[in-house]
Amino acid sequence: MTDFDIAVVMGEDTLDRAIAHLYGRDGLRSQLFSGKITGKILDEPITFEWALEEAPSLILCEPPEEKWAKAVGRKNQPPPRTPGAFTARLPRVRFGNSVDKKTSYLPVEVLCAFSSDSGVLGVVPLGVIADLSKEGQAGQRFYRYVIVPKVLHAIVLALGSVALPHLHVAGVEFGPFVLAAGQGRAVAVANSAERPAPRRPSPADFPADPFSILLAAPLVQRITANAFAEVKGRWMTTSGSSTFGIGRADYRGGLCVKDGTFTPVPGDPLTIRGSVGIEAYGDAQVDPFSGLEDALEKAGDTIGRALKSY
To answer: Which domain of life is it from (predicted)?
Structure first.
């Protein structure tokens, strides 16, 4: 038995396209991916500006040890090593300050972990990596005190705008998703609302699809049973009449689904083997001469017209 009822698998390319769509909208790009702040350093007023010049992308694999060692987290502390973490790449970040009037363009990476909150693909930013070895003192301070918190916040807003599907299938409600990243894909798993939340998934156990939804065999069986319950015990009837030549047939009938059993096929969880009990009735009445009077009258008219023609 699987530990989850439903799984949603999303590949790097799928998520990158969603983020690129947000970045491509002018209003959102200026709101999410750029900013300006004014403050003081050593009692000197200074204005910092920053902007993402290219859309972010994701590396949905465990960051190597050297990335953890280089990353700077909140409050300038090393980020905690977190299972299921991944990397968000910001290929070209522009930033500058009013002290040395210098504009720099740097690649920045953000170490992140997924979370699930209010039905969106949430993200917890852990730390930022950028090579500022060629920057002066103002640039170093800008990085630590401005770019780190701003970039972390931008990643939260960007990825937090990607909605997870809200699923309600044949009367089954689902609880919160549990997410993990790895092997180039993100995996979100959930159980039906009455079951405990599943364990964190291992992405290596799931197909490398751009996007897929997987259902566990017991859930498929339950959905089938719920759908069957909608028609169980309900009579479906029909009746009518039909004429043919000089006769008419009246008919009526009905069918009621009484009971049924459904079992998943081993090795093929999306196929259900079932048996259904049915109660039915039907009868018909045929009157071969119901139209005889009309037929004789029409025949007489036809003969009369024929005789008058001579």
So the answer is: Bacteria
Interval 117-160: pLDDT, tens:
555 667 788 888 888 777 677 667 666 766 667 766 766 666 65
**Continuous H helices in 173-242:** 217-229
Cβ(227)–Cβ(209) below 8 Å:
no
To 5 degrees, how large is the angle CA 155–CA 160–CA 166? 160
What DSSP state is assigned to residue 56? Answer: -
Q: What residues does each domain of the chain span?
A: 6-159, 219-310
According to the model, what pLDDT value does residue 264 have?
61
Give 160's contacts (C-beta < 8 A, 6+ positions apart): 120, 121, 122, 123
This model's pTM is above 0.90: no
Kindly write down the DSSP assignment for every residue of 251-276, as one continuous string.
Answer: EEEEEEEEEEEEEEETTEEEEEEEEE
Count the Cβ atoms, other than its own, within 10 Å of residue 42: 8
Name the token pair of 167.
Answer: 């699923």
